[in-house]
Amino acid sequence: RQAQGIQVAKEKGVYKGRPLLYSPNAKDPQKRVIYHRVVEMLEEGQAISKIAKEVNITRQTVYRIKHDNGLS
């Protein structure tokens, strides 16, 4: 019964998960700016740890942004 309810909720779009803090459509405009800066730096080929330190976010967040943009 519970699994059925969860399935119905997912179909309705209720089960979405937590919204991303750093994304192109983040609520906070400053976080959007940081996101675009990270993408820019990744395209320039800068080191992950250097990007993370410069914009003050974790390396894991930089890796997620990199993965989401297909910049491998």
Architecture overview:
- The protein is mainly α.
- It has a single domain, classed as Homeodomain-like (Arc Repressor Mutant, subunit A, Orthogonal Bundle), CATH 1.10.10.60.
- It contains four helices and no strands.
- The longest helix has 15 residues, at 29-43.
- The chain is elongated, with a radius of gyration of 16 Å.
- The relative contact order is 0.12.
| Integer-rounded radius of gyration | 16 Å
Remind me, CATH topology? Arc Repressor Mutant, subunit A
End-to-end CA span: 42 Å
User: CATH homologous superfamily?
Assistant: Homeodomain-like
- State the domain count: 1
> What is the element string, with H for helices and E for strands?
HHHH
Which architecture per CATH?
A: Orthogonal Bundle
Shape verdict: elongated
Number of helices: 4
Strand content: under 5%
Q: Indicate the low-confidence ranges by residue numbers.
A: none
Q: Structural class from helices and strands?
A: mainly alpha
- Quaternary assembly: single chain
**Average pLDDT rating:** 87
Name the CATH class.
Mainly Alpha
- Count of extended strands: 0
State the helical fraction.
Answer: 55-70%
Largest pleated sheet = none
